[in-house]
Write a structure and sequence with these properties.
Layout lengths: L12 H10 L6 H13 L3 E2 H9 L6 H13 L3 E4 L7 E4 L8 E6 L5 E4 L8 H8 L7 E6 L2 H5 L16
Parallel strand pairs: 4-6
Antiparallel strand pairs: 1-3, 2-3, 4-5
Helix pairs in contact: 1-2, 2-3, 3-4
Amino acid sequence: MDELPTTPEAANHASTETVLKRAGIDPTPLRLAVIQVLAREGRALPAGDILALVQDQHRANKVTLYRILDLFVEKGLARRHSSGDRALRYCLEPGSAGRPHCHAYCLRCGRMECLPGVEGVVDMAALGPALAMEVVAVEVRIDGVCAACRRKPSVPETPVDAGSGNS
């Protein structure tokens, strides 16, 4: 699969249209808007944020957005990630299938950042034989408090629930 546009400069109409066509997806205006938002933002976003950004330029509703996001996930263009606040986040697939895609998740503000260049975090070649299975994907999420939240004055607030098994 071709490398997807993951920078604002690459998130233009021509490159995103090409990515959709190569994935066998008809590049409708709304699909183009969604992939451009994901490419421009360069991080994992909840569907509500994607919808708000798309609605700045197009009429769209939640049902249509979720269908587009599901199609992108099905075709390998995007990944769906769980988060501590139980809202799914979506981001562009980093290019080659099977490459570990890691994220940093802030327990206070809920922001999820994609972490580039983390191929060494999980040894995919060794993981499969060790588990006696064919590993097709790995999801790693690092939970903590982001720099912006650490700089804010301390306010008694309940952190976002990290979910079970994430400690």
